[in-house]
Design brief:
Number of strands: 27
Structural class: alpha+beta
Protein name: TOS1-like glycosyl hydrolase-domain-containing protein
Distance between the termini: 31 Å
Shape: globular
Radius of gyration: 23 Å
Number of domains: 2
Length: about 450
Amino acid sequence: MKYTSALVVAAASVANAGFCNDAFEEFGNFFCPNAVKQIKYSGLDISGKYRAVATMDNSGTCTFEDKDYSGPIAPFDEDLTMHFRGPLQLASVAVYTPSTSTSKREAPKPHSKRHGHQHLHKKHHEHVHAEKRGGDIVSAVIDGVLQTWENNYFGPSTAAADATPTAAAAAAAVTTAAADSDSSSAKSATSSAKSSSSSSDYVPVGDYGRIAYYNAKEQVADGLVFLGNYGDPSLSGTWDTVWGSSLAYANEDGSGAAASPTILKAGTIADTSEVIIASDKECDGDCGTVRPGSVAYKGFAGSDKVFLAEFQMPLSGNPGTNMDMPAFWLLNGAIPRTGQYSKCSCWAGDNASPQQGGCGEADIVEILHSGDTKAKSTFHFAAGTGDSHYFDRPTDSTMKVAVVFQASSSTASIKVLDDDFDFATSLTSDQVEDLVVDESDFNLFSLMNFAT
């Protein structure tokens, strides 16, 4: 079935019924008649400021200071954390940023059981070591022919000086095997390949490197950590009567605190539970204000980044406030590090005005009424925006979603992917572009950007 796409201009009002003339109201929310497969936020290049937490202590003191932001997708270029609320079954997650190395990343290996803190860090270090000294099998289309060889080039050395120049240059330029790309990227690589005279003629297969990965079935977690607002002084994080629970390591089912980093097991995150995914890089005085005693990790920063997630949102049928209302959203990492559910955070700040909005929340797929099957998307910041388009809630099977922040176009794109989309160790620039611009919404994309 042919799907449709929606584009939202960042300057639009949140109260606007949206870019459909026949939106209808249901439980206080407006919806267009049909679901879409892509929602794109355009014109995000808007300067602003928010109220950042300046100081925070356990006695209840919380002070703020103004923080200016500007840039193609600011403030969403700051570090973001991923949030998942039940009922939700999280199958896999991957985060990508533009590659800074031409080495192929080693694919995670399956494990038969869950592992804790020690294994997570051991695996990460082994991963980095393998990345440096490879011996990887790489492929490239050269003169229209797919060629494959083992990459044994690790920089200048006596042995490397004797290597064939063309082979050494190609090994350094090509970053991943053709099997890591889908058919569209392979086609693009074929059309882009030139002669084999120099390394500058080659188009790298992987331009975006995978910096974080989780697979529930294989119980693999690399480059990330699972957290929750479950602070428990006997396990991790803290709790008091002033600010409530801080961030803590989440246990294996995401229902409470753990003593150390723990891999989320396959299963359903309960209606009342929320799992937060941050990078595996701990804050070391370089994350701004952090609540004393809290577990604190960095999110995923950068003006260009890709979040992939595969999940199911089954109907739980549970009645009550906030029940049967699953969601996937992104938050500025500074929010949970101080007080996601308290007044001491940059979400809004102290007496913030509409012109002085929050530091950034992006609701990707959110159910707004108990038991509903229509999922909305809204961006919250100084120029907060959203409209009446919605995604179908994936109640019976998993759905793969890509969230792409792209500096060059000042856009954020949310797109439902084909079921066979591979969360590979790298993505090509063409693949990322395909996640942002689709032929079905090309005219709408051009028109809306021209109008702004």
